Amino acid sequence: MIKRRILVVEDDRDISELIRYNLQREGYDVSAVFDGLNAYEYALRLKPDLILLDLMIPEMDGMEVCRRLKSDETLRRIPVIMLTAKSEEADVLVGLQMHAEDYITKPFSPKILLARIKALFRRIKSSEAGLDLKDRREFGPLIIDTLKHKILVNGKRIDLTTLEFKILEFLSRQPGRVYTREQILDNVWKEGKFIIDRAVDVHIQGLRKKLGLGCQYIETVRGFGYRLRDAES
Predict the structure, then answer these.
(1) What is the pLDDT of residue 131?
(2) Among 16, 117, 168, 171, fewest CB within 10 Å belongs to which?
(3) What is the CATH number of domain 130-228?
């Protein structure tokens, strides 16, 4: 079985070693770097399966590292979990707007960190497998192909992050049904849900920008949540 490769980017060497030790015990292939410049160069060279990224690091801060990763066509699909002592809502939202998959504040339990990592990999695996749902769902110009993990609008492929795809796929299971933010968090983040409801709004906003004409099918139901409108309604 091929080991998942995880890159730990943390300038506190005691914390880095604690994370490395616990991840290796779980069977992951772990590498560690201690500044943002080395983190970006490592990602370019070896393409890890996950990056644990501290925000307050030298040379290039974590936000800039994340921005560069998500702006690079060859790196943007690498999931990022941000690790930081910052806990203010504004920092959480900035990280999510940059398409980080999750956000963990220090101090954290190694068990919680491992649970979040496993949950993230399960979500990715489920998305790639397409689950046991109808493989192709159409909403006017918008096509959701769960088997091939593709989104098309007017025949053009739209590149989404893992979480954006999962939200859209979840809403498409029952067109017309209104889901609250809490329901979306429960079903998309599942046991990795340790973040604020506002995260859903951030990802919906990103989805609408990317979908172009397809964005008309994502409807906000004020005071309740969101739904994916059936093409015939």
Answers:
(1) 46
(2) 16
(3) 1.10.10.10
